[in-house]
Amino acid sequence: MLSLLIFFCSSIAPLLLCSSVVAAHIALSKGSFRLLKTSLSIIQHIKAWVMIDVFLVSIAISCFKLQDYSDIFVGPGLIGLVLLQVSTVLLVTRVSVRRYWEVFHAEENYQLTEKTLHCHHCHLSQPEGTECLRCQSPIHHRKPHAIQKTWAYLIAATIAIFPANIIPISILLTNGKRLEDTIFSGVASLVNSGMTGIAIIIFVASIVVPVAKIVGLSYLLLAIQFKRKIYHKHRMLIYFVIKWIGRWSMMDLFVISIMMTLVDRGQILDFTPGYGAVAFGIVVVLTMLAAESMDPRLIWDNYPEEFDKKESLNE
């Protein structure tokens, strides 16, 4: 399962994204509604799982961790990977699902006078209804059961985070000795080896980020359910930060997979992931699903107009 997750985030997701962008352009040129809708749906859901940049940073960290055990040389494949990373980042930042739908059928062509619903898929504002006028997807004022789904993912992630930090995440066999490391002990060993910078990166990505996501999303959900009427902009900022930092939790798993690939020399030196890595992978997936399932529009549902001036002063 762990290998499938890593393979999906580092290879399958970027391939699906690029293929879907090409398919979207073909759909626009041929006027194919079904192909356009399918490709844009894939783009919308897959963008968060494209993690080539995280994978590239993980390669650098793995090389630093292995420098005491072997000599590592940079091959031409790394140059290609860097170019792929740059191209993918540019693609992700430039691709806009809304722009594709606007090219296919602009919002102004509908000549709508009432705009009470906003489609979450094609971003068309339209009158009340059960189906989007442009992309024909089901539309709702808010995502159905968004709070319940987010709480379910968060509770499951909270449960999984304990074995992820207690059970060894990696096992290194060197000269007949078995060295097991949890996330905390791995960070400590990096500090003792003089790699303080890498230790800080691993500590933030593997410990601070997952905990911050769980705490942050819990705070947002509680604020929504208790109908807090101030600091809405602050909560939106928290939400966007949570969505952005979540992908970097995959760094430790990428490091483990890279080291497992590089270090495989039988009885002299061997590296394998522990069961803690599986639990940590579950935490990463669940927290990302929690962030995706939450509807940020819920934050603004109890925003009274008379608080506009007050909140601006608080900021």
Count of discrete structural domains: 3
Query: What is the total tally of β strands?
Result: 6
Helix content: 55-70%
- Give the overall silhouette: globular
Counting helices, strands and paired strands, the structural category is: alpha+beta
Can you summarize the main beta sheet?
A: 4 strands, antiparallel
- Under CATH at level 1, the class of the largest domain stands as Mainly Alpha
Transmembrane segments: 6-28, 48-67, 73-92, 151-174, 194-224, 236-262, 274-291
Subcellular location: Cell inner membrane
Organism: Vibrio brasiliensis LMG 20546
Keywords: Cell inner membrane, Cell membrane, Membrane, Transmembrane, Transmembrane helix
Explain the overall architecture.
- This protein is an alpha+beta fold.
- It folds into three domains: 1-104; 108-141, no CATH class; 143-304, Up-down Bundle (Butyryl-CoA Dehydrogenase, subunit A, domain 3).
- Helix content is 63%, strand content 7%.
- It has twelve helices and six strands.
- It has helices spanning 2-30, 33-46, 52-66, 76-94, 97-104, 146-166, 183-192, 196-225, 232-245, 251-262, 275-293, 308-314; strands spanning 117-118, 125-126, 170-174, 177-181, 264-265, 269-273.
- The protein has a four-stranded antiparallel sheet with strand order 4-3-6-5. Strands 1-2 form a two-stranded antiparallel sheet.
- A hairpin with a 3-residue loop joins β5 (264-265) and β6.
- The protein is globular and about 75 Å long.
